[in-house]
Every structure is written in structure tokens, then in C-alpha cells.
Amino acid sequence: MQPLNPKGRQQSHLYLIYEVCIAFPSSLVVVLKSHYYRSKMSSPNVVLVTGGTGLVGQAIKHVIETESEGSRFGKQPGEKWIFASSKEGDLRDPAQTRALYEKYQPTHVIHLAALVGGLFKNMKYKMTFLRDNLLINDNVLEAAHEKNTQKVISCLSTCVFPDKVEYPLDETKIHTGPPHQSNFGYAHAKRLVDVQNHAYKEQYGHNFTSAIPTNVFGPHDNFDLEDSHVIPGLIHKCYLAKKNGTPFIVAGTGKPLRQFIFSYDLAKLFIWMLREYDDVEPVILSVGEDEEVSIKEVADAIVKAVDFKGDYTFDTTRADGQFRKPASNKKLLTLMGGFEFTPFPEALDLTVKWFVENYDKARTGAAGKA
Ligand code: NAP
Ligand code: GFB
Predict the structure, then answer these.
(1) Alpha carbon 263 to chain centroid distance?
(2) Counting C-beta atoms within 10 Å of the first and last residue's C-beta, which end of the chain has fewer, N or C?
(3) Using CA atoms, how far apart are residues 158 and 204, in angstroms rounded to an integer?
(4) Closest ligand 2 atom to Cα of 231
(5) Whose CA is nearest to atom 13 of ligand 1?
(6) pTM score, two decimals?
(7) Which residues line ligand 2 (CB under 6 A)?
(8) Of 255, 238, 251, 252, which is closest to residue 351 (Cα–Cα)?
(9) Are 47 and 81 in contact (CB under 8 A)?
(10) Which residue out of 83, 86, 88, 192 has the highest number of ligand 1 atoms within 8 Å of its CB and is therefore the one to mutate?
């Protein structure tokens, strides 16, 4: 068949889209939707990222600064992005929260700010996790209501789901039973955001929604030896074991299973939600269920990535926490028309390389505790 119109790159680009849409009609919907949404968001928007200095915030900054302008995950012409830290305003305080909105007048908010930590910190500070996150979330959503912000995407976590429920976890199961004991403070504060979003929608028609990421890792993470999540914690421990010739000890039995998403991939999914998702119902942002790995497999991968030659042991006196929380990403992939995740070993290598190169300025927790 003669090519429709072979002349010029632009035409061949359009010709390619034409061919793809003929071959795969469903992609036509995705292409049109993505073009429609980007054209709808063409007016210069001001996007405020609360928690912009953390693991996920810095990943969104990286993607917005490296993807080409106007592309699906890139900055749109004239768009302004603000990556706020707690130094710009403690969001537990309503006045400081309002002041942040007053200063930047955001049209859209990606709300990431939270008291965050791994299993052992969650087990120690359940009330602080509950109260700090309740205050932060309430202030951010109420200020958005007062300012009639066009859209707010809040960030939950797959630990909000019930511990005892039929797997895989999907977006309909958030409120169908108690979360795991180890992090019920954090989990209930996060679950309430979904309730708040629905209430703001019903009473005021606001476009407030939420994302539910699985365990995240990447550059700019918190590598504190005790308070961090498993991947940054073990990277730091393995790095010190290699450097000082000390034992590398993994907490627990190594049997629990987890899904891990690379922060740069998660960042793109948040940008997709900002551009193309307008529904109050939450979306799980995760790799597939078949990517579940055991903590032992994670430790083995870290030993390889750090190039540690010694042996390592398990401290089974320490907690395993929730055994597994397998989440389905079916809704996400259906809505997006598919997504290519960074292979785990490659993402882990990037993270270890970043940590080793930035050890002096990374959050290693050396300077004091919560
Ligand atoms: P993080 O690295 O610990 O960063 C937390 C961010 O929140 C920082 O920018 C911090 O500012 C800010 N923040 C903390 N308390 C604040 C306060 N009182 N007022 C204003 N800002 C405050 O966290 P993260 O891992 O990027 O997490 C981002 C979001 O993803 C959170 O909502 C978290 O619950 C969610 N999440 C994370 C994971 C994970 O595995 N990491 C998994 C699922 C969901 P400073 O830099 O000034 O301290
Ligand atoms: O990442 P992590 O702290 O969080 O722990 P959760 C995952 C698993 O790794 C647990 C084991 O089974 C730990 O026993 N583990 C082994 C380690 N060595 C280490 C280590 O050095 N540090 C840590 N931290 N773990 C959190 C929730 O649960 O998931 C949070 O408590 C949040 O609220 C987060 O939702 C995403 O996956 O168990």
C-alpha cells in the first residue's frame, strides 16, 4: 500500500500515528485523549509539588527537567513548577499552609508532603504518623478548597489496604478491613484522604484525587540506617559493610514479598495523572503483580549492585512486618495504554551509583533522629 503522504518528518510522524491507530484502534483513544488533555492544559499552569525535596518530589523534578517540553511527561510551554520543602512552610500549621498557596497561587497541586518512614519507624511512632499526616493532609486540601485549586493529586501507599483481604489488592478494596498492625497510624491517615476527596467532590465539586504507589526507591531517598525503607537501608548497610569490613545484617527472615517501583517511573505516572486523569477514584501506581520479590532477593541484588564480597546474615529477632501486599496495576495500564517500567537491576544500579557519588550530602541519618 502506498504510504499516505511520505513527504517531511511531520507528515511521516502523523502517518505513523495513522498506521498505529488503524492497526490498534484502542491506541487512537489514548493518543486523542493525551493530545486533548495536553491541549486543555495549554494555558500556563502553576504546579505546586508539596514534599518536592523528597525521594518522589525530586524524581518528578528530574523528569520535568529532562523530558522534552510538550512531550507526554515533559513540561508544557509556559508551565511553572514549584518543588516545596518543609522549610518553606510546615504544612502541619494551617496558616503556613495558606501562606504557601498565597505565595505561589497554584492551579494544580501534587501533594507528596508527609511524615514518611520504613517499617521500624512506623512501629515506633504510630501516633506521630497518624497526627502529623492527618494535619498535613487536612491543611493542604482545605487550602486548595479555599483557593478553588483546579486539581489536587494526593499520595497514599499500598500499606493503606487491609492486611487480610483477597489478593491482588485493587482500588476498590481500600476500606474493606483494618490495615496491618505495624503501620496503622500512617495507613488510617492516608485512607482518610480518599474519604476527604470524595467529600470535597460531593459538597463542592472539587477535582481532588489520589495515587496509591507501592514501595518506592531511587536517588534522593532517605538512607537512614534505622528509619528508612528496606532498599535504601540495606544499600547503606551494605556500603558500610564493604567500606569497614563489618558484617552486613538484613533484618527479619528475608521471606516477606514486596513490589518496588523506581522513583523516576513513578514520577512519570504522577505527571500522567496530572495531565490525563480526572476522576476522584484513586489509582494504584505500581509495577505488575508478577514483579513481587522477596527481601532475600532484594538483599542479593543489593550485594551485587554494591559489589560486596562478604557474607550476610539475617537478624530474625527483628520484625518482618506485613508478609505481602500484592497490588494490581491493571486499572493504570488500561487507562494509560501501557507503560514501560525500568528493569529492577538497572534501577537499583542507578540508585547505588547515586548514593555512592552523593554519600556526603545524602540523607544518611548520621546527624540525629526524629
Ligand atoms: P521523603 O523522601 O521522606 O520526603 C518527604 C517530603 O515531605 C520532603 O520534601 C519533606 O520536606 C516534606 N515534608 C515532611 N514533613 C513536612 C511538613 N510538616 N511540612 C511540609 N513538608 C513536609 O518522602 P517520599 O518517600 O518522597 O514520599 C513522598 C510521598 O509518597 C509521601 O506522601 C509518602 O507517604 C508516599 N509514599 C512513599 C513511599 C516510599 O516507599 N517512599 C511509598 C508509597 C507512598 P523536607 O525535605 O524539608 O524535610
Ligand atoms: O521497606 P520497609 O521498611 O517497609 O520493610 P514495609 C520491608 C521489609 O524489609 C520488612 C525488611 O519485612 C523488613 O523486615 N528489612 C530487612 C528491612 N532489612 C531491613 C532494613 O535494613 N530496613 C528496613 N526498613 N526493612 C512500609 C510501611 O512497610 O512500607 C510504611 O511501614 C510505608 O508505612 C512503606 O507504607 C511504603 O513495606 O514493611
Answers:
(1) 6
(2) N
(3) 28
(4) 1
(5) 113
(6) 0.92
(7) 118-120, 122, 157, 159, 182-183, 186, 215, 228-230, 233-234, 237, 250-252, 256, 258, 295, 319-322
(8) 238
(9) yes
(10) 86
Residue 84 has pLDDT above 90, yes or no: yes
Of 56, 193, 235, best ligand 1 pocket probe by most atoms within 8 Å of the beta carbon:
56
- Spatial separation of the C-alpha atoms in residues 172 and 300, rounded to whole Å: 34
Helices 344-357 and 230-244 meet at what angle, rounded to 10? Answer: 60
CA-to-CA separations, 342 to 128, 217, 218, 272, in angstroms, rounded: 34, 12, 11, 17
**Can you read off the three cell numbers belonging to residue 279?**
476522576
Tens of pLDDT, residue by residue over 226-267, are 999 999 999 999 999 999 999 999 999 999 999 999 999 999
| pLDDT per residue as tens digits for the range 18-69 | 666 666 566 565 555 555 555 554 556 899 999 999 999 999 999 999 999 9
d(CA 161, CA 213): 12
